[in-house]
Amino acid sequence: MGEKHGSDVARRRLLIIDSVLTDMLRIADAGEEHLISAMIADSQAYVAVRLAALGPTGSTGPRR
């Protein structure tokens, strides 16, 4: 069971990283680069919010 839990944790972390980077790319594409600086400056809180958004299944919902 420990190995499965470890892989679930790793999967959730990768989903968070993917989600954060995707959000940053969307912001850059919209010409709002200054918001990326704010996200980086407050990255701990931002990632915590993204982790909470993943929910218990690790799913962020449908990909766009």
From TrEMBL:
Highest taxon, organism lineage: Bacteria
The name on file for this protein is Uncharacterized protein
